[in-house]
Model the fold of this input.
Amino acid sequence: MFELAPDVVPHTRIIPARRPPKKAAAPALAITAYAEHDGMGMGTLSDGSGYLTQRGLAHLCGVQNAHIGTISRDWQSDKPRIVAIRTRLERLGHEREAAHRVLIWDGRRQYSYDPAVCEAILDYYALEAGDHIQAEAQTNRLRFKRVDLGGWIVDQFKPKPEPEAPMPLKFVPLATHAPETFEAVDAVILYICGLYALSVWMAATYFEGLKQRAMNASWNRLGLYLPLKAMLEIQAEAILRAQKSLSF
Done:
């Protein structure tokens, strides 16, 4: 058996400890689209979210642009206004080291405020600003309680479907002949009108002949002519009215 000398140390392999993998840095956000809608400057970012510009947020809250700039400047302070806004933001489940991000669009800087910060500042000016509560902020707060602000911003940049062209008018030709039932009814009406007109004509002819006979009769000398004439004229007038009604 071989023995190791006391000054000889057995060879051991030392394995270095593994270093935790480095976390990949989050890609820098960039503006992908920008426009103004309802008087508010807004846009979308490379992560698909939306934002309002400083002027857009001021318009939403009904205040001057400088007021929003002051909030951004004092974001790390303990001023009551900032504390109230950050407390509301925490209630929404968000924390922000800064109120805005500085991004570049078309060669110019833009102060972009994400929807959570916008809602917290909007709530402040609608509910907690004391003498500086803005009616416009209250209106927009109710508006965006029913509609998600971030989703609404993104929707403004989605392509709008083209309105469908109205269907052309179709003219359906009318029936060239009336149904047989109507033809039978029309024939009966014409037949009755014809009989009525014939009876009126016959009556007028009869009374005219009777009048001539009465005027030429020998008994007319006895004084019956005047009352008979009056009766005949009344009847003749009635027949004349009937004839006029037929003419209409």
User: Anything to note?
Assistant: The first helix runs from residue 54 to 61. The mean pLDDT is 80.
